[in-house]
Design a protein that fits this description.
The chain is α+β, with helices and mostly antiparallel strands and 182 residues long. Helices cover 51% and strands 24% of the residues. Helix 2 packs antiparallel against helix 3. The two termini are 34 Å apart.
């Protein structure tokens, strides 16, 4: 595989953060526990209102249950705004426009940034995920390394290389071509 060079823009950094957070156990837990807590709160407050006035209590329960169904959409909207603000911090703004070169070897790949470099053994890859716009390589830690398709000369070559790696090292390869942060 030939070496690759990327220059990350803000959208690719956001995609990386959205994808890694959407697939994290923390986000799944927040969605589940938040929905349960909201449902219990609606039941309790609706019960109190029901004892005072049956019509108001029933209306509160109805509106509350509708909000429970849309809670996941609200969380996604909330975190979309949160991560946009988060990436506006100086530390992340330095990454926008930064050139990254990636060298592939027989047993590892190496990333070279302006002030650092990292070496990743292929055996430490947990999964490789393909979306419509990016390839995400998930390491055994929670780290995702993004390969933006828009900056690839030959996307099919990288895809074939990743699929061959998956076969050689028994890595899970997932195509999520319809994935979006919604």
């Amino acid at each position: 595989m030939k070496d690759l060079v990327f220059v990350f823009n803000e959208k690719e950094l956001l995609d990386s953060v959205y994808y890694s957070f959407a697939h994290s156990k923390a986000f799944q837990s927040i969605k589940k526990k938040g929905k349960i807590a909201l449902f219990i709160l609606v039941l309790a407050l609706g019960g109190v209102l029901f004892t005072l006035d049956k019509l108001i209590g029933c209306l509160f329960w109805g509106v509350g249950i509708v909000f429970c169904f849309f809670f996941s959409k609200y969380l996604i909207f909330y975190y979309k705004i949160y991560f946009k603000k988060f990436l506006k911090q100086e530390a992340y703004q330095k990454q926008v426009g930064q050139r990254v070169s990636i060298h592939f070897d027989d047993t590892f790949f190496q990333t070279h940034y302006e002030h650092s470099e990292h070496k990743y053994d292929y055996k430490s890859i947990d999964s490789i995920n393909e979306t419509k716009e990016n390839f995400f390589v998930k390491m055994n830690s929670v780290l995702y390394i993004v390969f933006p398709k828009s900056q690839l000369d030959d996307m099919q070559e990288l895809k074939a290389y990743f699929q061959a790696l998956c076969e050689k090292y028994t890595i899970k390869y997932t195509e999520e071509l319809d994935w979006t942060w919604r």
